[in-house]
């Protein structure tokens, strides 16, 4: 009986037979998200513009259930084409992770109108485009999991004191504004799609600086001191949250924003 119960619990988190799409799935955090879904059994398609970056990111894994699909999230036609091509292969789309983004401009006082618009487009509008294009597929099968990636800076402002000596690492205002929009977009579509068997949730990573930023030891030490856990996050620590929202274990959860930040926003 104990073995049966374990089996039952494991099946809740299993993604066997599911088809997942991860935009920007070969980046610093995207690679860990991708690997988590693949390790849970899903057929995972990494959507991006560079097949070479995909090969470089996963050259060691050689997983048979991991694929590249060309997609430009700035182009609605490209998104629609990518989704259709994957659907044609499997006749279903079960999971969409909106992780990719693009931006321009850094200085809060000197962003041009073009940089502001580009950052909002790359962090918010692109998420809407992907949600819009996947809805017909998920509605047709009356099931689906949409997981949006926001940020702790969509909920709180940066602590400007820790950026005084590292201004290049400061998240610009259009980034936080767009990520706050992603949280609200999540709630909107969670309610809009709730009776279609589709859940929409959001994950907001905290301090997960990329390897280049980690070279700034002074800045990393400031991040560590700011965080209740006393350290930055490792990309692999995101795997569980994404598998949870992608699986049947979260079947009665929708419209939520899960902070994976080491307690940063709990101060």
Q: Strand share of the residues?
A: 5-15%
Q: N- to C-terminal separation? A: 43 Å
Order of helices and strands: HEHEHEHEHEHEHHE
**Number of structural units classed as domains:** 1
- Look at the helices and sheets and give the structural class: alpha/beta
The CATH architecture is: 3-Layer(aba) Sandwich
Provide the CATH topology: Rossmann fold
Q: Uncertain segments of ≥5 residues (pLDDT<50)?
A: none
Q: Estimate the global geometry from the Cα principal axes.
A: globular
Major sheet: 7 strands, parallel
Mean pLDDT, rounded to whole units? Answer: 96
- How many helix segments? 8
Radius of gyration, in Å, reads: 18 Å
Strand tally is 7
Short key terms for the protein model shown above:
globular; 267 residues; alpha/beta; 7-stranded parallel sheet
Describe this structure in words.
The protein is α/β, with parallel strands linked by helices and about 270 residues long. It has a single domain, classed as NAD(P)-binding Rossmann-like Domain (Rossmann fold, 3-Layer(aba) Sandwich). The protein has eight helices and seven strands; from the N terminus they run H-E-H-E-H-E-H-E-H-E-H-E-H-H-E. It has helices spanning about 1-15, 30-40, 50-60, 75-90, 115-140, 175-190, 215-225, 240-245, and strands spanning about 20-25, 45-50, 65-70, 95-100, 145-150, 200-205, 255-260. The protein has a seven-stranded parallel β-sheet, with helices on both faces. Helix 6 links the parallel strand 5 and strand 6 (about 200-205). The model has no long low-confidence stretch (mean pLDDT about 95).
């Amino acid at each position: 009986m104990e073995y049966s119960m374990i089996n039952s619990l494991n099946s809740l988190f299993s993604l066997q037979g599911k088809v997942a799409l991860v935009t920007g799935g070969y980046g610093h955090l995207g690679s860990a998200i991708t690997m988590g879904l693949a390790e849970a059994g899903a057929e995972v398609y990494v959507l991006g513009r560079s097949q070479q970056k995909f090969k470089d990111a996963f050259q060691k894994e050689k997983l048979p259930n991991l694929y590249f699909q060309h997609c430009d999230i700035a182009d609605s036609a490209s998104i629609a084409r990518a989704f259709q091509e994957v659907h044609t292969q499997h006749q279903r789309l079960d999971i969409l992770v909106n992780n990719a983004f693009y931006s321009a401009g850094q200085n809060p006082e000197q962003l041009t109108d073009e940089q502001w618009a580009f950052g909002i487009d790359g962090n918010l509008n692109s998420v809407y485009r992907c949600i819009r294009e996947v809805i017909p597929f998920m509605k047709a099968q009356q099931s689906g999991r949409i997981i949006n990636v926001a940020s702790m800076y969509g909920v709180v402002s940066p602590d400007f004191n820790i950026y005084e000596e590292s201004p290049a690492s400061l998240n610009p205002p259009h980034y936080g504004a767009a990520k706050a929009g992603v949280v609200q977009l999540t709630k909107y579509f969670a309610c809009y799609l709730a009776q279609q068997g589709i859940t929409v949730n959001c994950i907001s990573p905290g301090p997960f600086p990329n390897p280049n930023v980690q070279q700034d030891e002074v800045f990393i030490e400031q991040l560590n001191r700011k965080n209740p856990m006393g350290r930055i996050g490792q990309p692999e620590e995101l795997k569980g949250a994404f598998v949870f929202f992608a699986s049947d274990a979260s079947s009665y959860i929708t419209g939520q924003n899960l902070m994976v930040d080491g307690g940063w926003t709990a101060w």
